[in-house]
């Protein structure tokens, strides 16, 4: 029982090597294939035919008698393997082996046993980290065979875990190896196998050992590289600092632009007067703003349309006489002016002069009655005069016309310099119109037209003839209808109603 | 003449061994098996030349050669001195046979190879006698007879690889300290 167990175990062990070598030696031309495992020679041959035959195996060496060997068989997939194991195989001598089938010579071969060694794989394979980057120390023990320690070569195979790409290193005699050039911090698989070196003994490669794993140490930073990097960084910093310092003004302008101040336009405003604009203005009145005022001195005269309805009294007749006289005088003077002097134009001028001389007695004139007084300002180009006219409260009660297309012809510039009243009557603008070309038509009788030149300080009034008015109407015109406020209760003579558009009636001087 | 040449050769081999000494083996330089392996390779080269020889490869002649088979179990039980005696006797037999064969060979290449083998065997004898002094008297050694030069060369090769090598590796003077 025990012996059978051992035999079965031996056969099992044998068959493992047999199967391996049967695969390995498939392409060998010799029929009889032999190998030495340990110190025993095993020869085998394959037969496809499953017919039962009697196989005999004999061997002899050194001219001695032939000896027989017990033949065993092993069933494979589609073939039968017959094998025989020679006990106490002599080495270093020529063996003659034969296979007989049914007493007839089938195969024969002469061989030296020491040339067919099939060794066991190496033992105690260990893989350790050497501490250095990308290195592993591999060591193992040779198979337990005497007299062959120094006649073996090894093959070390290593690969990254999980990868199929492995590298092979051949090691002679030595049973250790340092693997170089490995990846850092990587797990490697290592195998080893052994073979006789071919000088004293020859044979086949052994089976690979079981793989052993080893991990390479992680890569550590070379201090030299760290130093170099720091050095280069320092140099770069110094360079950039130098560049920044040399161009700091330029960079500062780009990054931190100055807030523009109008200080240079206002000399002394912030330094002397500390931002007090009024003070600065009062001191520098003539310097800056005066200039701008002078710009506007040259102005085009603008047409002033004065609309007023006033009923005449007995004073008219005397005035008419005066006007007629003056008219004749003016005609004698040789005026080639095509302005036609209306009969009442002279009377109008007299009124204006009276106003100028005695502004306080304006309201006391019994001759004047005003129902509605409108002043139309026709401004050629300048719209700013609207506000200016407002400031100038003009006693325009005197400016009126009743019949005909009368207009003031002569220019009395001194009359035009009507000074500002202290507030007897006010001129209020009710509406303003802008007339493009050819659209303005002089209003019907009852409207007086005057040309007004507003310099901003004083207004120059000139009477206009109807023809002139018509001519101007062709151009672009801007008219302002002004309503004159006349305190109604101060009209002594009038029992008529006077329209007053304004609430604030401060009490006339009339 | 032969003695002086042998001495010179031994001296040369000793120097050669010293030059080729490897750091792995702590053996004495003369115990380095690489010398023997060098001789073994040259003996195998003679076999190769013999296989390729077409003419003038020596007449069919019988030679007396030593037994080469090694039974490890048996060999281990033999005293090292006996082993030494057996090896030395065998080497001398080989030298005689090779010399006889060389006279019958007209192929120059084969002849020079044979001559090389003869000198190698002489060197081996000297080395072994240094390592294992041969005190005992030469015993009657068994021999076998071969009938051709190829067989002779095969015997030479087997003998060197087997018994001579085993002896050299097992010589007490050449034993490694860590074996």
TrEMBL record, chain A:
It is found in: Cell membrane. Residues 121-219 form the Fibronectin type-III domain. Keywords: Cell membrane, Disulfide bond, Glycoprotein, Membrane, Receptor, Signal, Transmembrane, Transmembrane helix. Its main location: membrane. GO terms for cellular component: external side of plasma membrane. Gene3D superfamilies: Immunoglobulins. It comes from Sinocyclocheilus anshuiensis. The gene is LOC107695662. This is Erythropoietin receptor. It is a single-pass type I membrane protein.
TrEMBL record, chain B:
It is found in: Secreted. The gene is epob. One of its GO terms (biological process) is nucleate erythrocyte development. This is Erythropoietin. Its main location: secreted. Keywords: Disulfide bond, Erythrocyte maturation, Hormone, Membrane, Secreted, Signal, Transmembrane, Transmembrane helix. It comes from the Eukaryota. InterPro entries: 4_helix_cytokine-like_core, EPO_TPO, Erythroptn.
